[in-house]
Fold 4-hydroxybenzoate polyprenyl transferase.
Amino acid sequence: MDKSDDVKIGIRSSALLCGQYTIPVCFSTAVAFFGLLSYGGYLNGHSYPFFAGVLLAAGLLLSKLLRTDIDRPADCRDFFLQTPLIGQILVGGFVADAIIGRISSGIAL
């Protein structure tokens, strides 16, 4: 969140390593994560609630990432504090998929 502090105390952070490419690296990593998560869901036979959760989480994360100014610590903090919501959306998709799957197969909850 504060690259100047990293330089002062000698930490070799990923933000310093990536430099001006921090956003593209994070974007690529996020796209790969959501792509692999979707592929795993496909292989596991998940249905539309799971994929809706992945799509919603990906949209929120990527849109916020593209609006984040990595040279402003407050923007980085706000982005970091939003990430639990992304996880909650993904878990919601998993849970909704499991409930709908059980209902459609006739298994009692």
Remarks:
- The CA atoms of residues 18 and 25 lie 7 Å apart.
